[in-house]
Design brief:
The structure holds two protein chains of two kinds. By secondary structure, chain A is an alpha+beta fold. In chain A, about 30% of the residues lie in helices and about 15% in strands. Chain B has a single domain, classed as Formate dehydrogenase/DMSO reductase domain (Formate dehydrogenase/DMSO reductase fold, Up-down Bundle). The two termini of chain B are about 20 Å apart. The chains are: A alpha+beta, B mainly alpha. The structure holds iron/sulfur cluster (3 copies).
Chain lengths: ~260, ~400
């Protein structure tokens, strides 16, 4: 099953090249800056891990840097900019209270109290969203990434009730008119389905780091949590880090260095 | 027997046409939702389930409550219920139809519904809910229809039918238990995360469902003269009263656990519902209405001399239905999603289209109920020779 899928992807990539210069008419008008579609060679360089995870140097994540990462992520993934509370968020910033509501710290250090924390899907080890999804549209890969099949999702929003972190967004309307810079390398969604951060699985597959990690310039450290020599494990060995709502039992793979 | 639904008084047809008009009106709004998406609802990123799912939950309770007639009748041979039992089963059918309707209008991609079966996922409670609800629907259709058919022909229902009736009793508990499990297993939703959720659901179902049934039956008695018998009515009223007391008791257990333990996450939903948080107090008048109605209905229901007078009984039942509906049809979902995972308040209130679409589903249930009850009453008229209240139940039916 997996093999045929990989073959198919290769084939798709090859035929895409055949179509020419990465501009596929049916995808709409690709902006000129969108590079060529990845080819077979790119997929062979794909990054692999047992358990992808992230460590965040929260002190380095200024509001400006968070905004930069947010824009990078949202542009890469065609995340629409919808005003109001029916919005879609993959990466965003929030206060300490909102990010760690179970801490209930009365006397926070002023600096932490005013710090903005980047939030994204925690890519939990035992994700509740996967457990409750009635169609397996949300599923977990062997490398830990919690992914979504937008074409299978029935939009029941059970996963949104299940996720204790508010990491998921529902397309209450057609998102396409709200996409400012269309990226032809990533699918857009239709209305009525749920979406969230996918740890840039599509970039890892061609050997690239996640978009937000690239944009953060070292403030976000990404790597294999199962490999004790990985960057992320090294960072976690040296710095004290906490996770959001660990008592919800989902075991987040995103660590916050305070 | 279906032909009995095709002949009726102008009043019967008038009812169906009125309900049909509501369906058509709501259908317009549903098409609007299908075209523009669920942005026409009051739902949002933080409160992602609302009015639709709440009505679904309430109606699962109504469906399950048929068991309050079936159980005494089949397990304890309480024959007084013989005239009501078919009405209970038919109400259950219409309630399940409405449940399925509310699921369909709630999901974002209804045309992909079958994915739940194509990719059957046993670790999802929604999958099991779909299985038990559809199973319950079929059980009630088969049992209800068959026993009515045999009653019409003055015959004893077959053994397998009785067996299925037994199964339906157990099954009724399962539908509301599984529906409670939809909520009770979610970490981080403190208002839902309680071990007695299923017990609370059943208690609230067993008072509100029979209360609705009894109100409808009393209405039917006025319209058609169909009388299920004073004894049966009184007995059902007693069952309702006990269930309501248990329901209130269970709710108080939740209040104690939350406030005595002083766990912030568990207290917050109660605060939002009963006092408001940060000035967001939209739910407060509703919840206190529920408290007043819930306690008030007991004044009419507990003293036997009061309860046995029809006007007092009706007032008590109406108060009970209002209280239980606010508790389960509004408070449960809104309290479960407020405060949101960031411990802030995102206000949710259903919009007009949302309510119109809900009315459409209710009216559909109303049509199913009207037709089924019409058939049941006509059959009884035929068997008992047109005299609905005088003739004692025939011996055949007592089996
Ligand atoms: S953060 Fe939420 S959406 Fe992401 S994996 Fe965990 S439970 Fe699922
Ligand atoms: S909304 Fe989609 S992804 Fe979420 S639980 Fe339902 S089917 Fe699964
Ligand atoms: S890992 Fe990728 S998808 Fe997730 S927030 Fe970062 S850029 Fe977005």
């Amino acid at each position: 099953m997996k093999n045929t899928r990989r073959e198919f992807l290769k084939l798709a990539a090859v035929s895409a090249i055949g179509v020419g210069a990465g501009r596929l008419g049916f995808l709409g008008d690709a902006p000129a800056h969108a590079g060529p579609l990845p080819g077979v060679a790119n997929f062979e360089e794909g990054l692999k891990a047992k358990h992808w995870g992230m460590a965040i140097f929260t002190a380095k994540m200024t509001p400006e840097l968070i905004e930069k990462c947010r824009t990078a992520c949202h542009t890469e993934h065609n995340v629409p900019d919808i005003p109001g509370n029916k919005n879609i968020k993959w990466f965003w910033g929030a206060s300490f209270e909102e990010s760690f509501p179970t801490e209930h710290g009365h006397y926070l250090s002023e600096e932490v109290e005013h710090r903005e924390f980047p939030l994204l899907c925690n890519q939990c080890e035992t994700p509740m969203c996967v457990k409750v999804c009635p169609t397996q549209a949300t599923f977990q890969r062997p490398d830990g990434i919690v992914m979504m099949d937008f074409h299978r999702c029935i939009g029941c929003r059970y996963c949104m009730a299940g996720c204790p972190f508010g990491a998921r967004s529902f397309n209450f309307q057609d998102p396409r008119p709200f996409i400012k810079h269309f990226n032809p390398h990533f699918p857009t969604r239709m209305r009525g389905v749920v979406e969230k951060c996918n740890f840039c699985a599509e970039r890892l597959a061609i050997g690239k780091m996640p978009m937000c990690v690239e944009a953060a310039g070292g403030a976000l450290v990404f790597g294999d949590l199962a490999d004790e020599n990985s960057d992320v494990r090294k960072v976690l060995r040296e710095h004290f880090a906490i996770r959001r709502k660990p008592d919800a039992g989902t075991s987040p793979s995103v660590y916050y260095i305070l | 027997m279906l032909e009995k639904a095709l002949k009726g008084s102008p009043r019967y047809w008038g009812t169906l046409i009125a309900l049909g008009m509501i369906v058509l009106l709501g259908l317009g709004f549903w098409l609007y939702q299908l075209t523009f998406g669920m942005k026409i609802t009051g739902l949002n990123r933080d409160v992602s389930w609302g009015f639709y799912i709440a009505q679904f939950t309430y109606l699962v309770g109504v469906a399950a409550s048929a068991v309050m007639l079936v159980l005494p009748y089949y397990f304890h041979h309480y024959k007084e219920f013989s005239k009501m039992i078919i009405l209970g089963e038919f109400l259950a059918i219409s309630a399940v139809v409405m449940c399925l309707g509310f699921i369909i209008v709630d999901i974002g991609q209804p045309q992909r519904m079958m994915n739940v079966l194509l990719n059957a996922t046993p670790h999802s409670m929604l999958f099991w809910d779909m299985v038990v609800l559809n199973g319950y629907l079929f059980l009630n259709i088969i049992v209800g229809w068959t026993s009515l058919q045999y009653f019409k022909n003055d015959m004893t229902p077959p053994k397998w039918c009785k067996f299925l009736a037994f199964v339906s009793v157990i099954w009724a508990f399962s539908i509301h238990t599984v529906t409670a499990f939809l909520y009770a297993g979610l970490p981080g939703r403190h208002y839902f995360l309680t071990a007695i959720m299923a017990a609370r659901f059943l208690a609230s179902a067993f008072c509100s469902g029979p209360a609705i049934l009894l109100l409808l039956i009393l209405f039917l008695r006025r319209l058609t003269g169909f009388d299920p018998g004073k004894k049966a009515i009184n007995r059902l009223a007693v069952i309702i009263t006990y269930a309501m007391c248990v329901n209130i008791f269970f709710f108080l257990l939740e209040v104690f656990t939350s406030f005595y333990s002083n766990m912030p996450g568990h207290i917050a939903p109660f605060q939002y519902l009963f006092t408001g948080i940060d000035g967001h107090d939209m739910m407060v008048p509703f919840m206190w209405t529920a408290v007043v109605m819930g306690l008030g209905c007991l004044v009419f229901l507990i003293p036997t001399p009061v309860r046995e007078k029809t006007p007092a009984l009706v007032i008590g039942l109406i108060m009970l239905v209002i209280a239980s509906w606010i508790d389960k049809g509004l408070g449960l979902l809104i309290g479960g999603f407020t405060p949101n995972p960031f411990e802030t308040v995102t206000v949710y209130a259903p919009t007009v289209p949302e309510i119109m679409i809900s009315l459409m589903v209710f009216a559909m249930g109303g049509i199913v109920l009207t037709v089924l009850w019409k058939i049941a009453v006509e059959v009884r008229v035929e068997v008992e020779g047109g005299n609905l209240s005088m003739v004692p139940p025939p011996a055949a039916e007592a089996e």
